[in-house]
Design a protein that fits this description.
Two copies of one chain form a homodimer. By secondary structure, the first copy, chain A, is α/β, with parallel strands linked by helices. Chain A folds into two domains: 179 residues, 3-Layer(aba) Sandwich (Rossmann fold), CATH 3.40.50.1970; 181 residues, Dehydroquinate synthase-like, alpha domain. Helices cover 46% and strands 20% of the residues of chain A. Chain A has 13 helices and twelve strands. In chain A, the strands form three sheets. The first copy, chain A, has an eight-stranded mixed sheet, with helices on both faces. In chain A, strands 8-9 form a two-stranded antiparallel ribbon. The first copy, chain A, has a two-stranded antiparallel sheet with strand order 11-12. The termini of chain A are far apart. Chains A and B meet through helix 3, strand 8 and strand 9 of A and helix 3, strand 8 and strand 9 of B. Bound molecules: nicotinamide-adenine-dinucleotide (2 copies) and zinc ion (2 copies). One nicotinamide-adenine-dinucleotide (NAD) binds next to helix 4 and helix 5 of chain A. The site of one nicotinamide-adenine-dinucleotide has 27 residues of chain A, from helix 4 and helix 5. Chains A, B: It catalyses: 7-phospho-2-dehydro-3-deoxy-D-arabino-heptonate = 3-dehydroquinate + phosphate. Chains A, B: Pfam families: DHQ_synthase, DHQS_C. Chains A, B: Pathway: Metabolic intermediate biosynthesis; chorismate biosynthesis; chorismate from D-erythrose 4-phosphate and phosphoenolpyruvate: step 2/7. Chains A, B: Its main location: cytoplasm.
Chain lengths: 377, 377
């Protein structure tokens, strides 16, 4: 659905979750309208708590806060409080949770308050968990500011923090009431971080949407150049794919949600063995999808042309397709510890054709090693 | 339903919550069978994490842990880890949550682990929140060891911790998989704490169950003397009442669950103005129910005989029915801050007859003051 709003084009994707359904609104240059969107989607809004990544506090979080405060009427004023969180993964901690919960309380938060998260996946996960836990759950709105957050972390209701040595170990399933995406917000994001987000976009094409994959092949140059129309379309189709998977398996119980892990068992092992920091997450996912596709071809599950097309698209998006230092001896033990391992057997999400994947249990270790080694060049 | 189990009488109450339904098993001297009950109700159990109040670690938590470990078979062993928590409300803190989450991780907790809470409401609320949050939610079993926890806090899925100055401000709705009650566990509980729990039992009679109220009138002496049969019956009927209310309003959204707050708006003001510690919670609830019934009589909502019967039953249970130091000037401001106040109007759960209550909004402040003053003697 595409609806004109205040002269801008805003497309909207519905996340179908019964009483917890919500919409993702995607636009370019329409963030002036965010305050109005929040009021119209949430109804009774009198106290808003904005939690922002320090890197995007100015101008984005500040302008959304000001617009919200200004949108109150005399009869129903809106009180807005705002705090910033240090950029980076270490903020997803119990210490930061403690600080934010006390901040919400001190600002007079109650069951009717609304939390607005402005930032990348770190802020969305952290602020979402605050929303899930304060007063046993209050409403929250996601304003994602990285491409990864727009197409992945802000959709689906997974919130949480890390324990020392254990990422995302603590959290809740808690759905936002609204997700507001303005592609203009990405203007300050580094090209490397932006491209990294494109890896997840490509993922949706491979696992769920052959037509979208073909569109990405056509639009790769426009996407790398961040052309707004191509970008809005890519975000919208990605969110549609994620929303439909989440709608079928909200709490990760049926197994359906596992298809979102395409490339990720390899990617986690790449991130861990390369040393955290060498690859951005999306870069590791790009290489991980290559290993998974290679494995699928080797197992006779799909045609080699799938790997060729995926390789070309990843390259067109300026992302890595190989890793010269890949070491199966180092990667395998990490993969065996991964949550996707059941009773010591390696399980993978593998493509059968563009747009379709299957969960394969009990994959031969030698085949996995071979796929890793083949992707060294 | 009453089913014989291992020669003991175990009655069981079902909490009807669709896919999250669970049973509360009530017995005397049957805690030897807890391990078997857990395995049969939960199915796949290979790693159990027991979190116990230090006051009941010996013998109760230790014996449940030993029985669980011993009940594993060679093909499917059960690993049991156990930790204790300091007695008392201050343990419901983020610091203790942090410690316990790291303990669960360090003991190898994963999505299939099971948490068992052995203690009163403090341990149940805290361990329940750990279960709700670890890996975004794992199974847990309540083994309540105070009467209040048996009839109230262990049923209904409210879990959580306190913030400085704000009780139960952080938490989750997270239902247990099973509640195991053995009245023998109460043998070490002080008489004062035990009697305090009876106030909540009386509450269920007034708000929901006239027949039960009459039984309590008959059985008051037996209950004060902790006769097992009378006690099991009282716990069972109390849990039935709470279960049916929770079944209708799991997440406190329809308003139905508010009836459980009968007497509590007054009680919270009594606890706050008497200085925390002067009254146990149930003692304040007893006086609070008297004030609420008095208010209902004064407003012409119910017959004065209701107050008379309630007074006699509370007295027969050796609980206070009046408070000489009650000060409406101190209590009213606390009541106005209470969550049950909407837009500055006082709201109360008031009885219309034994077994039935109504939510009354917009109660005249003068009538509230008068009810408080009349209960000074
Ligand atoms: N909840 C989920 O379903 C889900 C899914 C995937 C990832 N995640 C989580 O998301 C996190 C990663 O998300 P991320 O990649 O967005 O990381 P991030 O939030 O750390 O953002 C990356 C960096 O970009 C900066 N930044 C954000 N927006 C910016 C902008 N508009 N301009 C300039 N700089 C900007 C941040 O300050 C940060 O330094 C991880 O913690 C991961 O666990 C969650
Ligand atoms: N979740 C809910 O729905 C709900 C409902 C009501 C109350 N609560 C919470 O419950 C808590 C109060 O519960 P409580 O009254 O059980 O308090 P508690 O857990 O603090 O127990 C009271 C005292 O009794 C001791 N104790 C417990 N079992 C014993 C035993 N068998 N023998 C000897 N000593 C024993 C404890 O060490 C403690 O000192 C509060 O934190 C309250 O917020 C929760
Ligand atoms: Zn990813
Ligand atoms: Zn109570």
């Amino acid at each position: 659905m595409v609806t004109p709003s205040q002269g801008f084009e805003v497309s909207s994707v519905n996340v179908p979750l019964g009483g917890r359904s919500y919409s993702i609104q995607i636009s370019s240059g329409a963030s002036d309208g965010f305050a109005a969107s929040i009021r119209s989607a949430l109804g009774d809004v009198s106290h808003v708590l904005v939690i922002a990544d320090e890197a995007v506090d100015q101008p984005w979080a500040e302008s959304v806060s000001a617009a919200l405060a200004a949108s109150g009427e005399e009869a129903s004023p809106i009180r807005v409080s705002r705090t910033t969180v240090a950029s980076g993964e270490p903020s997803k901690s119990i210490a930061e949770m403690d600080r934010l919960l006390q901040w919400v309380l001190q600002k007079g938060g109650d069951r009717r308050s609304v939390i607005v998260a402005v930032g990348g996946g770190v802020i969305g996960d952290l602020a979402g968990f605050i929303a899930a836990s304060f007063a046993r759950g209050i409403r929250f709105v996601q304003v994602p500011t990285t491409l990864l957050a727009m197409v992945d972390s802000s959709v689906g209701g997974k919130t949480g923090i890390n324990l020392p040595g254990a990422k995302n170990m603590v959290g809740a399933f808690w759905q936002p009431s609204l997700v507001l995406i303005d592609t203009d917000v990405l203007s300050t994001l580094s090209q490397r971080s932006y491209l990294s987000g494109l890896a997840e976009v490509i993922k949706y094409g491979v696992i769920d949407d052959a037509e979208f994959f073909a569109e990405l092949e056509d639009q790769a140059t426009a996407l790398v150049a961040r052309k707004p129309a191509a970008l809005r379309h890519a975000i919208s189709r990605s969110c549609q794919s994620k929303a439909s998977v989440v709608g079928e398996d909200e709490r990760e119980t049926s197994g359906r949600r596992a298809i979102l892990n395409y490339g990720h068992t390899f990617a986690h092992a790449i991130e861990a063995t390369a040393g955290y920091g060498k690859f951005l997450h999306g870069e590791a996912v790009a290489i991980g999808m290559q290993m998974a596709a290679r494995l699928a071809v080797d197992l006779g599950m799909c045609d080699p042309s799938l790997l060729d097309r995926q390789t070309r698209l990843i390259q067109a998006c300026c992302l890595p397709t190989t890793w010269a230092d890949a070491d199966p001896d180092a990667m395998l033990p990490v993969m065996m510890r991964d949550k996707k391992v059941a009773h010591g057997k390696l399980r993978f999400i593998l493509p059968t054709k563009i747009g379709a994947v299957e969960m394969v249990g009990d994959v031969d270790e030698a085949a996995v090693r071979a796929a890793i080694v083949k992707l060294k060049s």
